[in-house]
Amino acid sequence: MPLKSNKPVVISILFLLALSAASRGQEMITADLDLFITLPDAYRITPDDLEKRFEQGDWTKNPYFKWLTGDKSRAIFQRKDLDNLKVDLTLLKGTVPIEEAIIDFKNGTLIGVTISIFNRGDGGSIAADDFDKRFKSMGRHIGEQLQARPTRREAKPTQGQLTSGFLWISAHGKAVLEHNPEAPGNTEFLRMRLARRDAGGAYEAAMQSRPGASVKLSDLPAKVKRDESGNIFITDIPMVDQGAKGYCVVASAQRLFEYYGIHCDMHQLAQIAGSDPEKGTSSLEINEQLGAIDHLFKTRFTCLAVAQPNGLVELIDGQYVGPPVPEADFHTMIKKSIDAGIPLLWSLEVGLFPEEPPLQEQAGGGHMRMITGYNTKSGRLIFSDSWGAGHEFKTMNAEDAYNATRGLFMMKPIVR
Of 91, 127, 148, 213, which is least packed with CB atoms within 10 Å of its CB? Predict the structure, then answer.
């Protein structure tokens, strides 16, 4: 007896979904991102080309992507499902759905892309056969583009190799397609990087067998800039966008790791640290999460201060039993770290005090930022949020910053 076709049922479901979206006034658009992974044409793409290909149209903000940096050196595409807008992202002529794509430019042309084909924070879960389809399709495409056979990489956590997947390197570029070792049975992320041979930074680190920093402590003071207004701040800290997820801790850690030349994004960090994308993070949880990560990446994590009802104290053995951290000591720690080219991870209660530019994204509550500089003349602290362009350089009164602090953390490379 022939099997009964379920095609009318599928069509009816799709029709009802589309009708529901239309009734909510939701516009549905798709961004096909094949141009960024088609070689060698991708290497000739400029920021202007990106804006022309994905125009803003009548929307108040570009519905497809946003710039993560003011100089248009990094952009991000993110899948969206809002009340008035649904944006799908696809590769390979619409056959492979993805969660997000980060596009990097240097000297006016594309140097590489980082694509989250799947991550738990955005996608929730993925069936094993869907994972297998995406993995194999992208692997074939990379091999064709780079005209090279891949090298298999198996996870060896005790030796510092934390992901499984394949690596390609040829005269046409380099690429890695990787996932957490438990996939596809328990998939946390499936990630792809494709770049020019000379891309450097996180792209170069992605091709290494161990995830340690590619910069030394002795290299970092050269990243510190001093301007005429008295600002002393660290430059060249990559920007990411945590999106709507409660990933401020791992997003800040990713930025710090990219600055150090460590290959690991927020989705992988969230999996390693056990972060919950729907919840905030207390100072003790931050200490536990980051303390569990540092040795895997040849870095050293230190909790400098945490908040108690009576003020900031040192944290000893995971408990609030250390001596007080007075305001003068707090600022001395910051100056010493910034002068050494080491940004600090800063947990605080946002919205308690004014800041410049004024706060918009998050009106109040716990949050993690990066302290990137200071100005003793103006009495201001310089910091950055993981929210994209416009959040690279922000300031707050230093005394207010001390009073808003929940925790202050340092993570630095161990190689001198």
Answer: 127
Under 8 Å CB-to-CB from 201, ≥6 apart: which residues? Answer: 238, 258, 261
10 inside domain: no
Question: Are residues 109 and 234 located together in one domain of the fold?
Answer: no
The tens digit of pLDDT for each residue in 371-388 reads 999 999 999 999 999 888
Q: Range of 232's domain?
A: 217-413
Q: Give φ, ψ of 300 to 5 degrees.
A: -120, 125
Q: CB neighbours of 17 closer than 8 A, spacing ≥ 6?
A: none
Token pair listed for 290: 């980051």
pLDDT band at 205 (very low <50, low <70, confident <90, very high): confident
Overall size of the chain counted in residues: 416
Residue 93 has pLDDT above 70, yes or no: yes
Strands (E) in 79-179, as ranges, are 80-81, 85-91, 96-98, 100-106, 109-119, 151-153, 164-170, 173-179
Question: What is the chain's mean pLDDT, rounded?
Answer: 86
Alpha carbons 275 and 318: distance in angstroms, whole number: 18
pTM: predicted TM-score of the whole model, two decimal places: 0.77
* Tokens encoding 347: 């947990």
Domain boundary residue, one of 175, 206, 237: 206
DSSP 8-state class, residue 356: B
Question: Do residues 237 and 150 share a domain?
Answer: no
Least confident of 55-64, 216-225, 246-255, 284-293: 284-293
Any bridge partners for residue 356, and if so which? 395
In-domain check, residue 401: yes
285 and 236, same domain (yes or no): yes
Residues 50 and 164 in one domain: yes
Number of domains within the chain: 2
Tell me the Ramachandran region of residue 108: left when phi exceeds 0, alpha when psi lies from -120 to 50, beta otherwise. Answer: left
* Torsion over CA: 196, 271, 386, 101 (sign): positive
